[in-house]
Protein 1
Amino acid sequence: MLAGTVDVRFEGAGLLPGQVNLAYGLHPAWRGRGLATRAVLLAARYAAREGGAQAVIQVDRDNPASAAVARRAGFTPAAPVPRADGAPFDRYVRELRAAAPRVRRLLRSGPPGPSRSRTGRRATSPKPSGRGRTGS
């Protein structure tokens, strides 16, 4: 099952030399789990390894959840840029260099999921008794 997409572009309209555009989207059923933030962090790491100097995320003003992803991934607001229809995109940027300790921890631990608690520790379950039998 596809949870979402991440797009990394090293060239494009409005990008200066060294800038990399990151775009992302998640299927609604997968939202709210930290997946977009983790995907952006991984994409930024990839862009840095490939020579990008600054990552750029452009967000529709009516999409505060996407802006929150950018902020959680360490991006800061920059000057807005116009869309094709003239309405402004909010723009977020992040320098691509060695990841800060908080970002390294997020990349290492990943988002909480069924096998992880919110603290990043693996959840444990009781071991079954008997030889693979369940119930009585």
Note: The CA atoms of residues 126 and 132 lie 13 Å apart.
Protein 2
Amino acid sequence: MASETEPDAPTQGDVDTAEVAFDELCGALAARDLKGLWSRPPLQSEPRPMTRAHLWRWDTIAPLAKQAGQVLDLQSGDGQRRALQFCNPGLKAGTTEALFGAYQYLEAGETAPAHRHSLAAIRFMMTGSSVYTTVDGDACWMEPGDLVLTPNWAWHDHTNQSDQPAIWLDVIDVVLVATWSRCSSRTTRSGCRS
């Protein structure tokens, strides 16, 4: 009759084969620029947004936009876009965790130079008239309350044909696109205007 024997108890020199197999797997993954999802910390159970509720008052911002129009030259590198960015106090950059918002100012009779970027933009006209954004050669006239969409990588410029300054809200998806590492822009193209 066969006797039942107890399995040998592990000794101090024995190695746990499961641990070795796990370490070998992790090494094999790392050698191929891979990582097991199990090695990452778990997702938080609830979102923790960093964006804070915040109010930017028109009565404060409009005079600052006008001041930017008086101080910054459109033809200089710093003044090509007289845009006052809404910087959320809870974020390192951006107005929200995905979007960048700004009031852009254009003095009477001015044209902001043509440019394009990998970011899509919306423009909501606040003040002014006889203002247009040229998008890929098509003039999109803007009056207060109008919304114009500029698709990403479309050449565009801004022109104010009136005798009054204009202000519009720019919203671009720069934070979202930057997260994807795909931001780029271009301010010149040979012999062409929007």
Note: DSSP finds three helices and ten strands in the chain.
Protein 3
Amino acid sequence: MSAQWASPKTSFSVITQKREVEELSLTLGHAIQTEKHRLEKAVSFMEEEGMISGEESKVLTAMAAERDQKLNELNDELLEKKQRETDAEVERFDKKINDWANRMKKLRKEQGR
């Protein structure tokens, strides 16, 4: 008798994959924030040293904010995509388990148990 259902190992890998994606998203978010602060610090320093004007500082800061927003949006999209993929995989496993359980019930019923 062969059972075609999700093994604990497979289910565990799905959970692990979901955690890894969430951790990666947090890491990317942290990297974006770190770069934002580094750029703000550099722009502020250049302005204090007279290397750029206040207007140039505002332009650079605005450009960086646009870039950060785009990076955060892409990070969110990636997280959502991976979560949808993982959820779909979990649904497939659940269906396999339910199908297997239904086959077992049918077999028991046929055998008079």
Note: Confidence is low (pLDDT under 50) at residues 1-6.
Protein 4
Amino acid sequence: MQSLLAMAFAAAGVLKTTKSREQLSPQLPWVSDDLAAVVRLIGLADFTAPLGYRLQRDPAHPRGHRHVGPLRTPLTRKRT
């Protein structure tokens, strides 16, 4: 589930950073009210958000190394 959400955020970020405001306004009406730089900044944030899902510090590791892999949310963990 998190991987699908991460891909959706990344795809939205790519669209907001590569398309002009005129091209985005039929799908996203709010972009016509903001500056192009703001739309691109939001797109950059959307594009980099999935990295937070994939690159998290491992609290169990003594040096806090990052581990890369799918992380489960508390709702998807098996209850014991």
Note: Strands lie at 55-57, 66-68.
